[in-house]
């Protein structure tokens, strides 16, 4: 999925929906059947394979979910015993049960097949691999859902789990800094590369992922092993910070870089734009670095 606007990230779910629609779902507390909008999502940067419940279609569009469960935790999916044509019963590990009634028999059959296909299936990736969404930038020709692999000395970005198409490869030793802010719960992971990072050179990459903290922790572990006692990333280590700011980092206003061409002079217009990163991560610098 290509685009030029960070706001498009909120709509990334559109390309990973396995099924969606209005149903009547049974309340777990009161046993009342209520209209609800349910969506079956494939695994992505926003979460694992899961069935999400919304109050209505508007709630879905505004991403205001009421509840969800992972399909990995589903043990069985069968017809409702009292409504064989239109109803579905989903059993979860631990003995919990979810029930809903569809609009017609064909819809119920489609739901049954798709839910049974995903039931109990693990979508866990190999160790060191994470699902993420690469925000559009001027530094790469690719944006969208991707796989981030963190090894002992590199961070690799692939278009999908097959790893056939490599978007970028970054040596950890050439990463100037990286940061994530779990307290903000914005799922941001920012990687800033130094000039020696080949082939992309000095650059700033912003990822969104529900696994952002996990990516950061693995990257931090690899970086500390490579650099020994020198701290790195979200670090307060004074000697490293002096090294890190000896050349001003690239401005984080990557959204405008996609939409406008720049002559990166000392008066770069990036400093006058709205940053895509939250205020605690935002740093205004000129893009001119000799």
From TrEMBL:
<dbReference type="InterPro" id="IPR050996">
    <property type="entry name" value="Docking_Protein_DOK"/>
</dbReference>
<dbReference type="GO" id="GO:0007169">
    <property type="term" value="P:cell surface receptor protein tyrosine kinase signaling pathway"/>
</dbReference>
<dbReference type="GO" id="GO:0005737">
    <property type="term" value="C:cytoplasm"/>
</dbReference>
<dbReference type="InterPro" id="IPR011993">
    <property type="entry name" value="PH-like_dom_sf"/>
</dbReference>
<dbReference type="InterPro" id="IPR001849">
    <property type="entry name" value="PH_domain"/>
</dbReference>
<dbReference type="Pfam" id="PF00169">
    <property type="entry name" value="PH"/>
</dbReference>
<protein>
    <submittedName>
        <fullName>Docking protein 5</fullName>
    </submittedName>
</protein>
